[in-house]
Every structure is written in structure tokens, then in C-alpha cells.
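Hypothesis: this fold can be encoded by more than one sequence.
Test: take the C-alpha cells below, design a sequence, compare later.
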């Protein structure tokens, strides 16, 4: 893992292109994995038999909820304090059959212990700061050099670390697979939907930009959606 931003806290502007709203978030230094979680790491933590032929592929087809539970499991494995407390609540039957223009209810309650030293998902703002790595454009390099996307992936997922990293040593921040973030997208409109970032191997160039924010249900899983682990910065 690497500490980002290396220069100390920064102010990052986020933009919601759907509403035209923008806002500034203060991002303190934190630690972020240099790659998304691979199938090898997933199998190691889960105690399942590893397949060496796919060991370096991003782990995909997992929901936001599964990513949260994995973070806690890896924390426990490494002797760290788990970050997330998970409980369930009952969703009234009437809310389950909601109109399409109403937010999706959620029967999971997840709280984040910000004093814990374990692994977690990056926030929306943290992810954007890490992706840009001090650059100011939509991408930190030429897309074919840094990312797998629709134009060069051949319609398939690829191992991590095959493309050039960004200036802070983070691989595949764009393209490859979308990455789950901690944040809700817009709870007033979309309820429990969480933010995903980065673009994937089947996406066009437009999706593979540092400022692109998408959303999906926390129970959804796709073959181009994974995640990357973060931690609070370790105090000296």
C-alpha cells in the first residue's frame, strides 16, 4: 500500500454531472492498495482453493456488501481492528414494492468506525485524489498506456499491473474494472445505491476518466466490477 496524497491533505472538487452540482472535500492522507483485490488475495482470505491461472486477475462478480465483509475479514486476518459494523433491519413489505421513481430501501445498516486501523473501501473523494495523482487532466496518461478498456481489451479482463501506473505508483485506476467506493450516490433519489469509479475493460474511452462517477445497487455484481482496499494513514 502507498500513502496518498503524499504531500499532505488536499481539497478536492467533486462534480455530479447529472445535477450540475459541485462541492469541495478535504482529503487527508490515507493508505491505498496499488492494485485492486485479485482472485489470489480473495481466495487466500476466504480460505478457498486458488486457481493459479487466474491468480492475478481482478476479483469481480462481487457486491458492495461482499467487499465490506472482505475488508473486515482481511483486517481480522492481519490482526487489525475491523472498520465496519454490520446489522440488518427489516424493510416494510410496502417499501419493497416501490414505484420506480422512489429510492431503493436497504435492509443493511453499515457503520464505519473511523478510529479503527483495519481495511476499508476508499471514499469517493479519496478515490478521485488517488486516481489523479497530482495531475490535472481527465487521465493521468495516454489511455492505451494506462488502462484496459473497450478499445484494447479484446473483450476480456486482464491481469493487474500490465499497464503503466499513475505518478503515485497505483495501477489500473482507470479501466480494467470499476471500483466500489464507500459513499452513497444520492440517497434522496437512489436510496442505498453506492458509487463506483474508474471504468472497466468493456467501457468506451469516455467512461475511463478520473471525474466519472457511476452508481449501482449494493447487492449488484458484474464481471467488470471489483474493489481496492484502503486504510487510515498509520501514525508514526
Amino acid at each position: 500500500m502507498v500513502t496518498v496524497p503524499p504531500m499532505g491533505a488536499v481539497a478536492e472538487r467533486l462534480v455530479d454531472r447529472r445535477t450540475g452540482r459541485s462541492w469541495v472535500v478535504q482529503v487527508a492522507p490515507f493508505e491505498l492498495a496499488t492494485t485492486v483485490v485479485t482472485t489470489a488475495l480473495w481466495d487466500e482470505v476466504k480460505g478457498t482453493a486458488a486457481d493459479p491461472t487466474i491468480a492475478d486477475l481482478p476479483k469481480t462478480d462481487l457486491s458492495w456488501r461482499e467487499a465490506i465483509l472482505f475488508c473486515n475479514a482481511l483486517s481480522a486476518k492481519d490482526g487489525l481492528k475491523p472498520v465496519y459494523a454490520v446489522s440488518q433491519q427489516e424493510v416494510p413489505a410496502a417499501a419493497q414494492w416501490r414505484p420506480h421513481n422512489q429510492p431503493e430501501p436497504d435492509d443493511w445498516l453499515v457503520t464505519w468506525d473511523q478510529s479503527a486501523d483495519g481495511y476499508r473501501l476508499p471514499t469517493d473523494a479519496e478515490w478521485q485524489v488517488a486516481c489523479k495523482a497530482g495531475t490535472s487532466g481527465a487521465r493521468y496518461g495516454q489511455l492505451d498506456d494506462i488502462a484496459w478498456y473497450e478499445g484494447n481489451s479484446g473483450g476480456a479482463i486482464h491481469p493487474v499491473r500490465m499497464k503503466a501506473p499513475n505518478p503515485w505508483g497505483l495501477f489500473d485506476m482507470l479501466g480494467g474494472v470499476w471500483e466500489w467506493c464507500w459513499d452513497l450516490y444520492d440517497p434522496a433519489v437512489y436510496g442505498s445505491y453506492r458509487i463506483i469509479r474508474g471504468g472497466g475493460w468493456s467501457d468506451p474511452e469516455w467512461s475511463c476518466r478520473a471525474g466519472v462517477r457511476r452508481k449501482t445497487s449494493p447487492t449488484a455484481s458484474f464481471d467488470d466490477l471489483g474493489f481496492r482496499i484502503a486504510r487510515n494513514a498509520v501514525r508514526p
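DSSP finds six helices and twelve strands in the chain. The domain at 2-232 is CATH 3.90.1580.10 (paralog of FGE (formylglycine-generating enzyme)).
Hypothesis status: open.
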